[in-house]
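User: I'm writing a tutorial on reading structure tokens. Could you give me a worked example: one chain, its sequence, then its tokens, then a sentence or two explaining what the tokens reveal?
Assistant: Sure. Here is the example chain.
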Amino acid sequence: MPQTFNSCKEVTQSPGVDLDGSILILAGEASGDYHAAALVQDIRRRYPKINFTGIGGERLQAAGMKLLIHYSEINTIGLSGGISKLKRVMLAYRRMKSELRSGKYDVFIPVDFPDVNIRLSGVAKQAGVKVCYYISPQVWAWRKRRIYKIAAVVDRMMTIFPFEEKLYSSVGVQANFVGHTMVRDIPAKVDRSTLRSELGLSNEGWLVTLAPGSRRSEIARVLPTMCKAAALHLTDYPDTKFVIPLAGPHLKEPIRNILSESSIDANVMAADAARIMMASDYGLVTSGTATLQAALSGMPHAVIYKMDKFSWFLAIKILMPLVMEPDIHVGIANMLCIKDTEASDNPIDIMLSKGYRIPCLGCGRPLLAPEILQRYVTPENLASWLDRFRNDPNLRSAMASAFTRLREMLKPHPSSPSPADLLADLLLEKRI
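And here are its predicted structure tokens:
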């Protein structure tokens, strides 16, 4: 039987232990690159002899991982995007299979990206490589039975949402809620004027963030509408300035091309998105990790989600009735509030107590942040939320209180193991 964490925590943290080993990582998206980079930094700080190799991006590479393939080669959204990149995804999959079977690695860390990573976890298991899954696949949202496949091939599950720990433990997976990286990285309070100066942004007027996502396909679908909404807002509020956080250098050109065809002047910045959001008054954010960044940054925002028409048709007419949970929403903060029913002072309840009921356009249930999906993604609808954030200080205050409570929900218990602790545990098990 594998050791429990408590049985070896003293060993992993005791003086004189000098762990070495090789770890393979697959982070197929910008968010995975971010989380995994923080993990690599933490464990390298304690165990500098451990080597990291894999698929990721600039953050993982800067943290010290040898980059085999950049995640931009394989990440996609929607069916049409998947077909166009299928060949590169398959080449990357075969490369990772070969690496796992090479005998060079002690631990495999799959980071989210479940369609590829669950299969590779099975390959790792057969090859005798320990599997420590980081960032749980969303089994609580759709295709719930995947949890049994995961249980069969994963040695440890590190979750970033508190309710997931109990979910995985219920099927026999050694799971630990390790807290969310962003809670540590995004400060609870900042001086906005000072921050704007540090970023080279003007302290005059109102600043609005437009966050169009980290994939070329979603940027192409969402950013033109965001720009049109911004133009409408600018007509009534000419003192407004717009800023676009750049998720990666490979996205600069497509964003510039879209802006060149719009009527607004937006500052495209490579600075950390959370810092830009903390400096902003409100914004529009494409679904994904950026929605949680916005919440933890305290920025009032609306969540935007739009797929290609064929993928949306499949999702609504086939996937949703067959394999998706009925009460699932695209904003991460909304999802966390809905799923973590045991949390006291739920952020949605805070909003309701302050007189703000933000309904889902599809099902009517109250949400923390508004979600604007597919056919509702119009310049007029987006602009109406920008206007509301601008003109309703009580709404901004209510959202700030709810976001503060959300931050507390994402903090790990002081006695909980860190991701670095759990990986050290697995490396020690490998030595036994």
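What the tokens reveal: The chain has two domains: 5-179+412-431, 192-409. The longest helix spans residues 78-100.
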